[in-house]
C-alpha cells in the first residue's frame, strides 16, 4: 500500500494531460474556481484518508474474520483462490462493481446517506477532480458494506490491487472532461457522457439515475439508465444545492451537523 499515492498521482497526471489534448467542453479552464479546494479533496480522499482507513479497515477485518470463523463461518474458502490471475481479476471486478452500484443506489435513496453524498453532487464543473470530491464518510460506507461478500470471494491481493487501480482510472475517466465515445460498448462500460447525466440537477429521467462506476450494464439491466445522446444536461448539481457551503472544511462538517 505504500506505493498507492505514487500510482494515484500518476493516474491523475495522465488525466490532466488528456483533458488538455482531448477536451470535450473546450471552454472549460483547467484552473477553474474551487480547483484548490478539490485538490484538497484529492489529498484527503485519495491519499491521507484512504491510507488511514486501509490500516483501520485491515485491523477491523482481521477481528471480524476471527469472530466469524469462531462462529463457523469460513471466509475466503472459495474456488476462486485456485483460478488464474486473470479469472480472479475478472470475478473480483464484476462483484465489487456490482456491489458499488448497489451502494451508490443506497446513497441516493437513504436520506441519511444522501446527506453525505450531496457533497459529491454539489460539483458544478465536471473534470477528473470531481471523482475525488466526496465526503470521507462514503469510504466507510463502501468499505463496510462490500467487506463480507468480497472477503468470502477470497481473491488474491494482486487481483484486489489491480481492480483498485482499474476502478480509480475508470472513476477519473467518468468524471473527466474528455471527448471519448465507446460506441456500442457504452451499453456495457460507463463513459463521461453517460455519467454527466448522473450529475444532472433536473429530475429528467428520474431524480436518481446512472449509478454505474465501471459497468453501465447494471443501469440498463435494472432500468436506471438515462442518457440522451444528442445533448448534455443544462445544469449540474442537485435540487436545493444552495444549502451547501463552498469551503473545504464547511463541506466536510456540514453533513455531520444536519439531517436530511
Low-confidence sequence ranges? none
Structural class: mainly alpha
Number of domains: 1
Choose one word for the global shape: globular
N/C terminus separation:
36 Å
Q: How many strands in all? A: 0
Order of helical and strand elements: HHHHHHHHH
Number of helices: 9
Give the helix level as a range of percent: 55-70%
Largest sheet: none
* Rg from Cα: 19 Å
Give average pLDDT, whole number. Answer: 86
How much of the sequence is in beta strands?
A: under 5%
Summarize the structure.
The protein is mostly helical and 260 residues long. The protein has helices at 4-21, 35-70, 85-109, 111-121, 137-153, 157-175, 192-198, 217-221, 248-253. The chain has one domain.
What does this structure look like?
With 260 residues, this protein is mainly α. The chain has one domain. It has nine helices and no strands. Helix 1 runs parallel beside helix 6 and helix 3 runs antiparallel to helix 5. The longest helix has 36 residues. The two termini are 36 Å apart. The mean pLDDT is 86.
Secondary structure topology:
Blueprint: H1 4-21, H2 35-70, H3 85-109, H4 111-121, H5 137-153, H6 157-175, H7 192-198, H8 217-221, H9 248-253
Helix pairs in contact: 1-6, 2-5, 3-4, 3-5, 3-6
